[in-house]
Amino acid sequence: MKKEYPAEVQARFEAAVAKYPHKKAATLTCLWIAQETDGHVTLEAMEYIADLLEIPVTHIYAVVGFYSMYTTKPLGKYHIQVCHTLSCELMGAEGIIDHLKQRLGINVGETTPDGLFTLSGVECLASCGTAPMCQINRAYYENLTPEIVDQILDQLRKEATVHA
Length: 164
Prior knowledge:
Helix content is 48%, strand content 11%. It is of the alpha+beta class. The protein has two domains: 7-66; 78-162, Glutaredoxin, CATH 3.40.30. The chain has a four-stranded mixed beta sheet with strand order 2-1-3-4, covered by helices on one side. α1 (7-18) packs antiparallel against α2 (27-38), α2 (27-38) packs antiparallel against α3 and α3 crosses α4 (57-66). The two termini are 34 Å apart.
């Protein structure tokens, strides 16, 4: 079944495409719109975008697979992406990931049962000078220690409770 979006979302896709001289250039923006709308990039959304941009769907699959900012499965309210590239690894990323796994009761690639947190390990987030670090949704958290991680998690839980 072909994916359909509400008129206001279709207008966002069309506005994104109109910004570029070649439709293919709108790939990243269109994927972001789809993910914001659906909570993740669905197969149907990839097919919709490929049709919209008049490019092979395999190109869309490749882009989604390459960039860690796109996901093909639903995420928790807070997506915790811990960098585990060389600088972060040398500065303790593995310990941060282990602490998060223990504190959240999940493994990398999983979401907490309450749907609040998803934990991912990702490649370089370009903040090597402040390692170890993570990105939670769109915010960077740097120079992490287990204590700082606990403060961040407590604050996010508090915010989720207030906005529930």
